[in-house]
Amino acid sequence: xxxxxxxxxxATTAFGAGAAAVAAGRHVSELALxxxxxxxxxxSLTVHSATDREVTLTRTLGAGRRGxxxxxxxxxxxxxxxxxxxxxxxxxxxxxxxxxxALAAGQRVRLTxxxxxxxxxxxxGLAYRDVEIPGxxxxxxxxxxxxxRDTWVVLAHGLGTTRxxxxxxxxxxxxxxxxxxxxxxxxxxxxxxxxxxxGHLGDxxxxxxxxxxxxAVRHGARRLVLYGWSAxxxxxxxxxxxxxxxxxxxxxVLDSPVLNWQCTVRxxxxxxxTPRALLPLGVRAAEGRTGLHAERIAEAAAPxxxxxxxxxxxxxxxxxxxxxxxxxxxxxxxxxxxxxxVDDASHAAMWNANPQSYxxxxxxxxxxxL
Length: 370
Description:
Blueprint: H1 3-33, E1 45-50, E2 54-58, E3 69-73, E4 76-87, E5 90-100, E6 108-112, H2 120-124, E7 129-135, E8 138-145, E9 151-156, H3 170-175, E10 180-183, H4 206-218, E11 223-229, H5 231-242, E12 249-255, H6 261-271, H7 279-290, H8 294-300, E13 310-314, H9 324-332, E14 337-341, H10 350-353, H11 355-366
Parallel strand pairs: 9-10, 9-11, 11-12, 12-13, 13-14
Antiparallel strand pairs: 1-2, 1-6, 2-5, 3-4, 3-6, 4-5, 7-8, 8-10
Helix pairs in contact: 1-6, 1-7, 4-5, 6-7
């Protein structure tokens, strides 16, 4: 074979391999940065049977976790409680409510920390107002549950959920007479789409939280509590550091914060069935497509940057956002950071594992801030 022909063949092969790697990385990054909020996924369960009091599901580690959880699938959303019994291939749980559709044998569903669907009135009987929050990409929808105090709680959901996830803490906030603003931010249903259409794990979304903070102040808030789950917790950290309104932040509640985005991208892609060998490609693609940099999140979570009381819910069972950084923050800043560890809880499902103790911790934390 002539030298030029061999060189051309080698170049073509290398180009093809490079293009394939770029395509693979892009696909893997989308698995992590565009999580599904409905429908089946690789961790889906089959409904074996259902009555008006209980539902039997495929037996998995998640299906047998303690506490209260949502189950969702195409056209259905329900809430399950305690495990009633187990069999070699199934778990039977108490059925607390069916908010949408109906459960039937053979359905494919998945567990979710999002317990409620609908809105604060239909799900909890709480009066609320639909509001529009002006943001840099356009107007974003929000739910405002009014309260008598001038300290407002601004809530941001996280990976693979919607603002409905945040409704689990509304009864606690309402009992404390705190106004609560639940935000639907970029790429959520009804909110503006970002130019690239993918999530940035809070690195750009925090500016939408900042817009919600400005809305709250324009409508009477004198102090703010930022409350976030997963990437929403990262949004809160960034806003507390970088928002022009950061001086008004009286405290933060962070549930399962994403403090190491590379680990989260790898874990989210792996959970969708990505081979281990492709995970580094996904991390590089995520960084290239979004401009994510570890330094920005690390700076926001640096112990020296904390200036307000912060309650963190996290636990060793979180495989999506490692809890080590949360534990280290609490160790380095015991004057401001309180870590509430939760065992046997999956990502962003700290409330679900033990609602009563979670809500009591929130109440005790917020009361001095009123």
